[in-house]
Fold each of these.
Amino acid sequence: MIPTLLVAAASAFLAPVAAMCPTVTTIAVTPPTSGQCCSSTVSSTSSGGSAILAALCIALTGAGSGVAMGLDCVPDDDPVTCGAVSVICDTPDPSWDGLFAINCLPPPPF
């Protein structure tokens, strides 16, 4: 799981990385369909969320004022077995390797 301290450190040290991106990958926010079990959630516009996106040269479109990002996620469709923060997100890109998922919402009630 990603410690909160790591997210805070990322925001302090990785923000300048955005200026070093040769190209920016634009990702459209889509309706969430993928069950995820994440260690925590942050806003994509928070210092930690924006630092992660900047470090990976990612820009979100269709996000309005920002969306919730799940951090340190694994696929899990069962909120009972999650043991952390169970959310429904856009299907994460495999290249993100569980680091984060975007547009995360609480799962519907049983």
Amino acid sequence: MAIDRTVSLCKPFFYKTAASPSLARAICVAIVTICLLVASLPFMGIGNYILSQTGSYVCHIDLYSSSPKDRVFIIILGLIAVAVVTTMLTSNIVVFYLVWKLKKSVCRIFPLELNRNSRRKNNKCIAAKKEQQMAQFVASVSLIFLLTWLPLTVRLFCNYFEVLPNKTLDLVAMKIALSGFIANPFAYVLFRNIFKRTLKRSFSQIQTGIGNKINVKPQSNKIFHIKVSRIHRENSTVEPSKFVTDMQHAT
């Protein structure tokens, strides 16, 4: 997503002509294929998986093996992680700079506070604000990825170069990385503005409904008084006996 936003801002014409749902599907298939290929390397003799030291039936990478093939697997994972982290950081920095520059130039020409009735003039400023919101969303998801996977990346290189060996830190880093799998789906939902607006609208409707139920008062007395006043108005010129009879019927 970070690369997608960068290309769309740096090369808008190329992005508009080249980007398509089929290209997006092809990229997703390529990413999944690469992940499966790297994960299957231990089954081909490069690297090793071992059971977790906590006693649970969870396997993880063998970070302490002295075998050359196992160490090659560790450095492959470390280099992939560094490439992903570097790409995400660079892309997000470029996106935020371009969005800030776009918003500053457009909103200076068409300030949103002026000419609110002129929708045509404000379209570009609104588009810049939406682009900024999308950049913030991508940056939030990227930040969660960095916070959950960076500790494990650091520990991979620490074990490879035999610097600060500590099995407790390795275990904590792995658990933080696993928590990223849980946090990512929620991040895609919680950081979207449309979800925030929908959630706020739902709470507002619930509060309004509860308030209406509390403020409801019995209407029977009010209806009775209305009927009495209407009968009194209609029978203002009628004799009293007939007026009393009509009131009894109304009651």
Amino acid sequence: MKLFNVLHGVLAWAKSSRIKKAAKCNALLKQVESHLSIQKKRRGSMMRQSRADIALLLQNHQLQKAFNRAKQLHKDQCLLSAYDQIEQFCRCIASNLPHIQSHCSSLESLPGDVIEAVSSLVFAASKCGELPELNSMLRVLRKYFGYLFETANEELLKGNLVNSKMKQNLCTRSVSDDQKLRLVKEISEEHNLQLGIQDFGQYLSTVSKSINGSNGSNQVKQKAVQKGKVLFEDCRSLDSSIDKLKRQNGRCSNSTHVHPKLPDYEDVRAKLTHVKLVLFKDCRSLDSVLNASTGTEG
């Protein structure tokens, strides 16, 4: 009888604990959705302003500035898409929470969409610092699935189950010219701006030339630096030669024997000093070339 009471108490405690965890998890999911709504409105407002700015730049035929703004607009679009995914995954977890609590020790027994939702939220928590509720949610999920599951999805290790589209949306670092071109053309069509494809092609050609020019400038700078190093070594060699002649002259001054082929120390010193000054001027001229090149790029 006592054993029965003990088992009954343990089961009651476990059930109470699961209910508390479920309630806490549901509360966090609601907080995430509430904060997501705010962030989506804020991001949407920023995107509308960016599109209006790009349209104004296109009207003024400032294509380069328009393309630069299109880069940030693309990133904002990816982030907004990620917000939509996070919201969907939160709803998926909320509707399957009892099932998750019962089968969290065995991932194979959970539906694929539930595992993907949990994995994607773990990854999103490491990328979306503007949603602190996700980190609180992460601590709850960690108790269900453990640290290894968290690390695999957070760091995108082999075998992670994070949604591929979310990876793209939250890992956008560079934006291709094609993506920027698509956005700029889309905005120009929305505002009925008659910008022919020649304008965009001309811009892309200019960008390509500037990149090639930058590469050429870097090569010139590298050659100049290499030549400067050679001149510097020549200067050091001249210094050592002068010091060596000084030592020889000192030893010869104390001796009564004069070598008939030994050159005059003062003449050699004057010649070497002249060469050293010429090399020093070359070094100074190289410095001015490098500074001018840096100023032009800036």
Amino acid sequence: MINENSTLVRFVMNTDKLKKVPHQSYSLDGLKNGECLCVVNQDDTWLVVYNSQGRITSVTECQNEEDAYEELYRQISDAYGW
């Protein structure tokens, strides 16, 4: 059952804000190429990483998946001023 208050659901459903964020600038399902902020599950550890053309420049370790999406949302909302 999907928790409507979860960060991922809020993030995905907020289309007005998402329209301002190029889809290639973030990944909700692992490491992607280019300049992007990614949620990565690595050996049961949840990370939010910034990939800059194949070079990881920032890593935030999170307690669980929900916290990782919360951190991704926080970093994007800070960058976009919402």
